[in-house]
């Protein structure tokens, strides 16, 4: 198979400065709404990139669970590999790959833990099986067989019965405080449109067009 033959033209439309909101969060919410309306599978799926203590970058897909002027939110096990990397280096990057719309959004910023109250509010809204999974999985650690994980789930079902499942003290949310946000729109003949927002020291946003 010759992978060099895989190519296509991006003809969905261009992106101009006048089409952008002055606030990257407002622009992101607009594009996210359009991704949802366009039937994009998993429109809130985002690639989270971190760098660990050895300087090794790593990426994984997590789900966006909230966005506001304060930042982008996701939840995880605080003992996971991603959480350990964030503890070492809180500078992270997010990528939203909306390929069907010939768009992508990249966010660079600082990750900070959310409050216990915010994390508990979301945890208690999750399906019960997801709550049990948060307790059962020692995320990122080796396990010899899936049966052991399933046995742990069964044990937890018995332990908690039909009562409320408490929030694990090792589980919670992160909020990514954006410092740069780039909007990419595919263009014909590889002349893509790229605009990047930069957070100014005074708090406003500066927008620059970047070459493709």
TrEMBL record:
Gene3D superfamilies: Electron Transport, Fmn-binding Protein, Chain A (2.30.110.10)
EC nos: 1.4.3.5
PROSITE patterns according to UniProt: PYRIDOX_OXIDASE (PS01064)
Residues reported to bind substrate: 7-10, 65, 122, 126, 130, 190-192
Binding site for FMN: 60-65, 75-76, 82, 104, 139-140, 184, 194
Pfam short name (any one): PNP_phzG_C
Ranges where the Pyridoxine 5'-phosphate oxidase dimerisation C-terminal domain occurs: 171-212
Source superkingdom: Bacteria
Pathway: Cofactor metabolism; pyridoxal 5'-phosphate salvage; pyridoxal 5'-phosphate from pyridoxamine 5'-phosphate: step 1/1; Cofactor metabolism; pyridoxal 5'-phosphate salvage; pyridoxal 5'-phosphate from pyridoxine 5'-phosphate: step 1/1
Residue ranges occupied by any Pyridoxamine 5'-phosphate oxidase N-terminal domain in the UniProt entry: 33-157
Signal peptide per UniProt: none
Cofactor stoichiometry and binding remark: Binds 1 FMN per subunit.
Catalytic activity: pyridoxine 5'-phosphate + O2 = pyridoxal 5'-phosphate + H2O2; pyridoxamine 5'-phosphate + O2 + H2O = pyridoxal 5'-phosphate + H2O2 + NH4(+)
Keywords, ordered alphabetically: Flavoprotein, FMN, Oxidoreductase, Pyridoxine biosynthesis
Cofactor(s) the protein needs: FMN
GO biological process, one term: pyridoxine biosynthetic process
GO MF annotations, alphabetized: FMN binding; pyridoxamine phosphate oxidase activity
InterPro entries in the record: Pyridox_Oxase (IPR000659), Pyridox_Oxase_CS (IPR019740), Pyridox_Oxase_N (IPR011576), Pyridoxamine_oxidase_dimer_C (IPR019576), Split_barrel_FMN-bd (IPR012349)
Description of how the protein assembles with itself and partners: Homodimer.
Family: Belongs to the pyridoxamine 5'-phosphate oxidase family.
Free-text function comment from the UniProt entry: Catalyzes the oxidation of either pyridoxine 5'-phosphate (PNP) or pyridoxamine 5'-phosphate (PMP) into pyridoxal 5'-phosphate (PLP).
Name this polypeptide is given: Pyridoxine/pyridoxamine 5'-phosphate oxidase
Source organism of this protein record: Kineobactrum salinum
Lineage: Bacteria, Pseudomonadati, Pseudomonadota, Gammaproteobacteria, Cellvibrionales
């Amino acid at each position: 198979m010759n992978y060099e033959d895989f190519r296509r033209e991006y003809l969905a439309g261009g992106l101009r400065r006048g089409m952008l909101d002055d606030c990257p969060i407002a622009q992101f919410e607009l594009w996210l709404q359009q991704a949802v309306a366009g039937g994009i599978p998993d429109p809130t799926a985002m690639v989270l990139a971190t760098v660990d203590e050895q300087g090794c970058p790593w990426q994984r897909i997590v789900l966006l669970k909230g966005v506001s002027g304060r930042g982008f939110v996701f939840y995880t096990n605080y003992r996971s590999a991603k959480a350990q990397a964030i503890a070492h280096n809180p500078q992270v990057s997010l990528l939203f790959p909306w390929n069907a719309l010939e768009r992508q959004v990249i966010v660079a910023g600082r990750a900070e833990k959310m409050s216990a109250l915010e994390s508990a509010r979301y945890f208690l809204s999750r399906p019960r099986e997801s709550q049990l999974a948060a307790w059962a999985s020692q995320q990122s650690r080796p396990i010899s067989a899936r049966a052991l994980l399933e046995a742990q789930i069964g044990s937890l079902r018995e332990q908690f019965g039909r009562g409320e499942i408490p929030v694990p003290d090792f589980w919670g949310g992160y909020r990514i405080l954006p410092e740069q946000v780039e909007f990419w729109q595919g263009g014909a003949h590889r002349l893509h449109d790229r605009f990047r927002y930069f957070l100014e020291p005074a708090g406003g946003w500066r927008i620059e067009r970047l070459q493709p």
